[in-house]
Specification:
Blueprint: E1 15-16, E2 23-24, E3 29-32, E4 35-38, E5 43-44, E6 54-55, E7 60-61, E8 70-71, E9 76-77, E10 86-87, E11 92-93, E12 102-103, E13 108-109, E14 118-119, E15 124-125, E16 134-135, E17 140-141, E18 150-151, E19 158-160, E20 167-169
């Protein structure tokens, strides 16, 4: 029969369609066991209807009953069908919507949940995947983004300045101590 029947009310858990011709599940819900239920965490559904909820891609997430998957913020990542995004570990970073975190290159560092790896400042150095930069020892220097520190020429009477950014000669009548690098 091709007649139209307008519906005034729907059974529990169902929603009345905008055209008032049928009861259906709302956006963020799917039909399961004769009732509308929220989409499971890590899945979402934008349109109303009885159709299935779609799994979120890696780099995105959704809580239960979501109408769309959201991108992971910078400094966080997720696999497919994720309920939440996880923070990148120290020494790694990620941009928004990342499925994995990338290790920081030598000469840079990142704290946990960092969106970018930062360069080591002059007088400091780091290896790959460093959570922080280490200071050069007394009598050593480095430029920004250093992988290693360079020794000052102690035989020529040099030591490093207080910031370990430049070598300078000890004052007259002073000499560098090999054990500490201090004049």
């Amino acid at each position: 029969d091709e007649r139209t029947v307008l519906v005034d009310t729907c059974p529990a858990s169902f929603r009345l369609r905008d055209d008032r011709e049928a009861c259906t599940c709302a956006a963020g819900e799917t039909l399961s066991g004769g009732a509308c239920v929220p989409c499971a965490p890590g899945t979402a559904k934008a349109a109303p209807g009885a159709g299935a909820c779609a799994a979120c891609d890696a780099g995105s997430f959704a809580e239960a009953g979501a109408t769309q998957c959201g991108n992971c913020p910078a400094g966080r990542y997720s696999g497919a069908k994720a309920r939440e995004c996880l923070p990148c570990e120290a020494g790694t970073s990620s941009g928004a919507g990342a499925a994995t975190c990338q290790a920081c290159q030598a000469g840079s560092f990142a704290a946990p949940a960092s969106p970018v790896c930062a360069q080591c400042s002059a007088g400091r150095f780091s290896g790959v995947k460093a959570p922080a930069c280490s200071p050069c020892a007394r009598g050593e220097i480095s430029n920004a983004s250093a992988v290693v520190c360079t020794l000052c020429d102690a035989d020529a009477g040099e030591t490093s300045n207080i910031d370990n950014t430049a070598c300078s000669r000890c004052l007259p009548h002073f000499f560098p101590l090999p054990a500490t690098g201090q004049c």
